[in-house]
Every structure is written in C-alpha cells, then in structure tokens.
Amino acid sequence: MDVTLRVQRFDPEAADPKPFWEDFTVSIEDNGTVLDALMKVREDFDGTFSLRCSCRSSICGSCAMRINGHAGLACKTQAKDALQNGVITVEPAGNMPVVKDLVVNFDLFWDKIMQVEPYLKPEGPEPEAEYIASNEAMLHLSGVTACIMCGACVSDCTVLEVDPTFLGPAALAKAYRFTADPRDGDEKGVSKDRLVELTKPSGMWDCTRCMECVQACPKGVAPMDRIMALRDQAISAGFHNTNGARHTEAFSDSVEHSGWLDELRLVPKSVGLTNVSALIGYAPIAIQALTHGKMPPIIHKKIEKAENVRKIFDKVDGPEQH
Amino acid sequence: MYPAAKLICEKLGIKLQEMPAASCTGAGVLQEKNELLGDTLNARTFAMAEALDLPILTICSTCQGVMSQANHRLKNPEYLAKVNGFLAEEGLEYKGNARPKHLLWVLIEDVGLDKLLGLITRPLAGMRLAPFYGCYIVRPTEALEFEEHPERLDSLEKIIETIGATVVDFAGKTRCCGFPILTINERNSMAMVGKHTSEAKDLGADAMITPCPLCHLNLDSFQPKAAAQAGRPIDLPILHMPQAIGLAMGLSPQEMGLKRHIVNTKPLLTKIGAGAAS
To answer: pTM for the full model?
Structure first.
C-alpha cells in the first residue's frame, strides 16, 4: 500500500534553521506501521532523515512522536489506521527541544525522573532478612512499572506546555511507583518525605487532570490516575495545607452536605480563608461576576434527598473505611 | 446556560424531565479523593434514570466524561455488585443500562443534523467559530466509546457547519482550558486560557464555542485576567454550545443569557444581525 507522510523536519545545521514540512509517498506492506513508513523514507528518499527507533515492538520506548497531532509510538501505530484523508502527519514529540527532524532532547525528561529520586528509600531499622512484599502490592505496582520511558505523556502534557517547571506525568507516575511500594518510607509503608516534596508547587497538585497522558501512554500506565492516587495518599497522610488538598476537601464537603457544589464558597475555601492577598486578588472577578448576574446564589439549596448522598459518604468514605 | 439549553431542547422536541435528587458527578475532583465514592454517586443517578427508563442528558463535557468513565468501570459485575450494596438502603439498584449523553452527541446521533438544520432561521453566515471541546468529552476515548461512535470525533465542527458558521480549526481545540487548577496554580490556568483564546483569535475567529460550562467559565470570566498576564488584548467571546444554536434558531441574545458574559458579545451579535435585539 502507498502511504503519504507529511513530516515536520528540522536541520540545526541549515543556513536558516527553521522547522518545515515535507511530504513523502512510500510503499509499505498493508499491515505496516508508521515506523515502517518512516524507515522507508530514510531508506528510499533521504538518508539524513533522523528518528530514534530500536525494538519495533513497543518495548524500548524510542519512537514516541506526534502522529496526527497526538503522541504515540510509531511502531505501535498501524499506518492504515493513522491515515487521515490519505495523509499521516508526523511531528517530533512535544514539550522537549528538537535536536533534528523527529529526534528530541530528553534531558528535561530525565532531570524530572531524577528529581523524584527513583529508588527505594526505606526508613527505620533494616529488616533482619529479606523484605517480603505481598503479591497484591507488587501486582498493583506492575501497572506503573510497565512504563518504558518513551516520553509520550510528557509530549502531550498540557501543563508542561505552559510551565516547564511542572514535574510532569512520567516523573509523578514514577514517584507513585515508590510511594505505593510497601518497602518505601516508614514501617507502615508511608513515604512521608516523598509526599512532602511532591505536594510542593510544580508537584502533584499542579496536574490539571486533562487526561492527555492517559490517552497518550502506549503501555496503559495511566499517569494521571497515579497522580490522583498520590493526591489521595497525601491527604490520607495528613498533608491538608495546600490549595489542592483544600480544594478537594471543600468540594467533597459541599457534595456530602448538599449533594452538589456550593460554588460561591468553594473558591475562598480552596485558597484558604486566611490567605488574604489571594482572596483580594479574586475581588475584581467577583465584582465583575456580580454586575453581570453571573454570581452563584448566596443561599445554597440542597438537592432533594441530600441525606441519602450523605449516607453514601458515610458508608464509602467514612472513618472506618480509612 | 441552563435556560438557553432548555429553550433549544424545546425547539428540538426533546422533552426534559429534571432529576432533582441527582447529585453532582464529582467532576473528577471527588474521584481523586475516593473513586469508589464518585462511582457510587453516579450509579445512584444512573439507577434513578433507569427507573424512569430515560437516557440522561447533560450539557457539560466534564459531567459526560465522569459519567462515561464511571459507567465504563461499572461494567465489571463484581464492582457493580459492590456499588449496589451501598445503594440498597435507598432502595436503588443500578442494572447497568444507563445512557448518559451530552446534548452535542444527542444532536448528531438522535435528533439528526437535518432536523437541526430545518430549525435554523438565522444562520450564522460569515461567522468564524473556533471549537473548544473540553478534555472530558474527548479523552479517554475508550470510555467515551469513540470506536463505536466515530462521528463523535468532530461532532462540534459538524454543529458549527450546520448552524451556518465557518470552522476555525486550531491546535488547542482538544486541550485543557485550565479550569481545574484555577485555585491551585492560577498562573498556569491563565496561561492556558491566554494560549487557546489568542491562538483562535489570531486565526480570525469571531468567537469560540464550547460544549462545557466549566471551559466557558474559565475562558470567558477569566479572559481579561489571562489577557493581562499575556500582555495583549484578546476579546474573544465564548459561547456555550446551546447559546450559539439558539441564536441561529432566531432566539434572542437575552433568552440565551448573553448579558451575563464577561467578554463583550455585542460585536458578534451585530455581525449576525442580532445586535439590535441585545
């Protein structure tokens, strides 16, 4: 089958180094992958065309790139499925500087992984014999350890797009791999020191829950779900004093007591009632909302049968469940 | 937004029955604290709709996504039984047949674009609209059943064309509006608002259209703040999808609640010939 690729190229050594688009039509097997097509470009048209690849079977994580605008592994994407109006658009992974053509610089990616100290840090006395971890705990971790560090999640992260200081989905999922490991942290397996670091700005609470990383990950790691689990761990470990934790708890309180959201009180409760400067910062927006009839009602009514919602909270999220 | 949606549903012949005892879906926030709790609350709503033998209509991308994800997890019979255990006291049982569906999808899959077209009396001809979906109605595609419903992929563009406007395609259309981190990292949230609205504006959009009220809130109410942070004017009106449809059906800007917008919608209304009524 013939496949047309529209590839974003970049040559740092060109007289005027700027990204540009180039189209190639190559012939591949009907069941060929996007990677097969890209390799044909290099073999048949331009030996200088640069891309990373190795295993061709979604194990090594080398060939993450944007295919039709979304990150994925070129070797895991069937060319016939990726055709859009007869063309497959290929760009380098996002949120990382381009070195040449489809090759990006991973320094930032690895810096972030190193930042979460990706090794076990047990506290307290060493066990006398080997540490026995339960099968259940290890099976749970296998979901995160499936990460092949391809960078697809980082490529499409909407927060990294506006804030390169964010730890990002890959590093936070890696952090969860340790906070959820019973061998890490104190004798109960609670990794308090890690959680202290991870609740700081640029950490777990900066994720905007857009699910780009869940969609992009070729191995089902679902980094965002791990970030949500980190948040649960942080709240359970007593780290309430962050805007994120306050927001989650204020939201949850509102639904528990009235069945739905008290929008008017959510903002001050989230930024903290004693955080005067932040509250003043919201004043102009509140005034504007008021003058445009956009302000939520001052009296917050409960939904019908709100008491049944509260009972569900008691049963599912009550103290005996924690 | 709710009154606007109710009015267009009336015109479309969609009969609405409110569920006054339905709770908040949790919007993904409750789920980060306790997923089982969020799923139980949604199963409660599903059970109530099932008892009425009616599909669930939402006008919110986030509610759609959260309900779809919950429904997806509740396909597991063991999990469903566990959740039903928490609903028993209220006399409810979820059997697994709820159909939560955004108005956007209902328009395309149930009402049909031909019927919608027949109700358009003031086509938004000459108006350039940039679609903005909201994360939860586009990801993750498995829970949202995109494979079974490939038409969902460009549903908003189809609506824009049906109401007579021109689509302004832009990279940010399926990205995040920044609302979930508004009170957590306002700077990043504003950067997202500024990035998407200015990108659409620079591509010549007259307005942005979104099926998500949360995106609407952030992109409209906080646009002046985002513009200040970006150091440039933006002034891009943001329309909630039912508002744009209502205008094209000849409903008045007042009925569509446009006076409540923060970004001025008057230039837009003048352009479509609804200015005098505002």
So the answer is: 0.92
